[in-house]
């Protein structure tokens, strides 16, 4: 029976993947790059392109984690706070206590995964009505703990192994960008070549029908939120590598950029629709837009307004797509 549900979810994906749904984000990225190339001589240079690749890495990692809850018609508002607590714990272990930096990396990723798992458990075992509530709670709890255990003070002076992911280059290419590509390939395989990945799409298509078909919905949701937390920890590791410091207010508002990347990339808030590579394009669009606006000396306030309009437009397109699907 579960195979039938998976086939129906695949049919929904195919139906939703019209030309605009499939290539709209890519076309938008090409148009955006073309306009910025015309407006600024400094945009289409090797240094700036590599800078964009580096700048997009943190949001790209958060976004691929965010894709999973959104595919199940959920959301994870806690990723920014999970990032902060993960890197502060890494700092306490590897800097304050002088323990092995590789242990610090394990702690960073482990704390992220544990907090994500906690989100999943609260959603499935405590029967909270929507992940908005459980992850909103985790967002505040994790942020509060990060501030309490450090006295709101930053931690600096991380060892080279911790800095590697954020500040190393392979030729002209940032290692963080290579890491993003590897992670996205793994997630593409996970979502499209495994039964768990197909079940994620099925749950997003219709959770109750998926449950009645024999899919262990609660187990899949715990996996989804655990992976989202893990990606927040990994994004935090890259961030610390870039700036060689961790601070408890890190990641504030990052969940919004991650959500925006997923939706701009063609995923649906209604669940069951979205792709790995569309999400990467969405994260790239946000990075390109911020970079281009900086090159054009647009103020930060106007940048927020412009990016907000882009997000609203992407959500509106999602609503129109959903109405079209229902027809």
Automatic annotation (TrEMBL):
The topology of this chain with respect to the membrane is: Multi-pass membrane protein
According to the lineage, what is the superkingdom? Bacteria
Where is this gene product found?
Answer: Cell membrane
Keywords from the named record: Cell inner membrane, Cell membrane, Membrane, Transmembrane, Transmembrane helix, Transport
Question: CDD domains from the entry?
Answer: TM_PBP1_transp_AraH_like
Q: What is its main location?
A: membrane
Q: Which residue spans traverse the membrane?
A: 20-39, 60-90, 102-123, 144-164, 170-191, 220-239, 259-288, 295-317
User: What terms describe the molecular function in GO for this protein?
Assistant: transmembrane transporter activity
Listed GO cellular component terms? plasma membrane
Record Pfam families = BPD_transp_2
Q: Which PANTHER family match?
A: ABC TRANSPORTER PERMEASE PROTEIN YPHD-RELATED (PTHR32196:SF21), ABC TRANSPORTER PERMEASE PROTEIN YPHD-RELATED-RELATED (PTHR32196)
What's the name of the protein?
Sugar ABC transporter permease
């Amino acid at each position: 029976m579960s195979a039938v549900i998976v086939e129906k979810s695949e049919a929904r994906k195919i139906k939703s993947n019209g030309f605009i749904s499939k290539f709209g984000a890519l076309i938008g990225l090409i148009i955006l790059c073309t306009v910025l190339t015309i407006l600024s001589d400094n945009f289409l240079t090797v240094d700036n392109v590599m800078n964009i690749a580096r700048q997009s890495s943190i949001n790209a990692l958060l976004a691929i984690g965010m894709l999973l809850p959104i595919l199940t018609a959920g959301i994870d508002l806690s990723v920014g706070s999970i990032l902060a607590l993960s890197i502060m714990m890494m700092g306490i272990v590897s800097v304050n206590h002088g323990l092995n930096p590789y242990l610090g990396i394990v702690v960073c990723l482990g704390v992220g995964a544990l907090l994500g798992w906690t989100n999943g458990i609260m959603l499935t075992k405590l029967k909270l009505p929507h992940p908005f509530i459980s992850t909103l709670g985790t967002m505040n709890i994790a942020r509060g703990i990060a501030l309490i255990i450090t006295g709101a003070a930053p931690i600096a002076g991380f060892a080279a192994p911790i800095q590697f992911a954020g500040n190393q280059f392979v030729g002209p290419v940032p290692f963080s960008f290579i890491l993003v590509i590897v992670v996205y390939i793994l997630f593409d395989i996970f979502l499209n070549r495994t039964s768990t990945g197909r079940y994620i799409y099925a749950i997003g298509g219709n959770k109750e029908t998926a449950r009645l078909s024999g899919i262990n919905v609660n187990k899949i949701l715990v996996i989804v939120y655990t992976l989202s937390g893990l990606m927040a920890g990994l994004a935090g590791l890259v961030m610390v590598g870039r700036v060689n410091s961790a601070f408890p207010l890190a990641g504030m508002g990052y969940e919004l950029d991650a959500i925006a990347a997923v939706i701009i990339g063609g995923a649906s808030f209604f669940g069951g629709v979205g792709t790995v590579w569309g999400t990467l394009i969405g994260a790239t669009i946000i990075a390109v837009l911020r970079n281009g606006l900086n090159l054009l000396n647009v103020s930060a306030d106007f940048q927020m307004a412009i990016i907000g309009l882009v997000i609203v437009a992407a959500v509106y397109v999602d609503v129109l797509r959903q109405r079209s699907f229902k027809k």
